[in-house]
Specification:
The protein is of the alpha/beta class. It contains eight helices and eight strands, in the order ααβαββββααβαβαβα. Helix 1 crosses helix 3.
């Protein structure tokens, strides 16, 4: 059970508005932005920020590649543009071949990601990021693998700049994200990070169907 001392956010809505307090919104409004959630859980927060910026909001679909020896260990992420980001240390420690990862990535992409893209955007992958300022948002960051995959996808799609905003993240992820993102905005960093939901009073599971409702709301 979470101690009150560990709870930093009541829910996603509160976290979203607290992010607005630290974002340079007035300066950002001088340019056009596209706000992208890197997960289902980040979509509500991304929408709050996008509304403040009068910006388009979207979501970048991705999925995990799981280690064959451990069904709770993610070793790679594949995005809707088939960008594959590999956790190299885990892959080496489990002695997993790249052939396995890319074969599984293709399978996950075809079996899982494509159907969501077809439903959410009528089959169109996220696009039109060329020369755009992109802000990628999530409810929190664990390993950073998904966020890094989304950043790299946005860069490869020709984004003018790519920034990241998240309420909470491990201190260990900061340097990695800052190495390729133009800006990183966060409220709380923790040296000993447990799990995102540990730091929220209420963090309900979000499914694909919920994203459709938030999109229309």
């Amino acid at each position: 059970m979470n101690s009150e001392n560990n709870i930093y956010f009541k829910n996603r809505e509160v976290a979203g508005y607290r992010l607005l307090d630290i974002l340079p919104i007035d300066k950002m409004k001088l340019e056009n932005w596209t706000v992208i959630s890197s997960s289902y859980g980040g979509y509500e927060i991304a929408k709050i920020i996008a509304n403040s910026l009068d910006a388009k909001v979207d979501i970048m679909f991705s999925d995990k590649i799981i280690a064959p020896q451990n069904d709770e260990c993610e070793i790679a992420i594949v995005t809707e543009h088939e960008e594959v980001l590999i956790h190299e240390e885990l892959v080496k420690s489990f002695d997993i071949s790249l052939d396995y990862i890319y074969t599984k990535s293709k399978q996950v992409y075809e079996d899982s990601i494509l159907s969501r893209v077809n439903s959410f955007r009528d089959g169109n992958k996220i696009s039109q990021l060329e020369y755009k300022n992109v802000l990628i948002v999530d409810e929190g960051i664990n390993t950073g693998l998904t966020m890094m995959a989304c950043i790299k996808t946005a860069i490869n799609l020709g984004a003018k700049s790519v920034s990241v905003a998240t309420p909470i993240l491990p201190s260990a992820s900061i340097q990695t994200i800052e190495s390729i993102a133009d800006d990183l905005y966060y409220i709380k960093k923790l040296d000993h990070f447990i799990a995102i939901n540990f730091y929220y009073d209420s963090l309900e599971d979000i499914e694909f169907e919920d994203i459709e409702k938030i999109k229309k709301g």
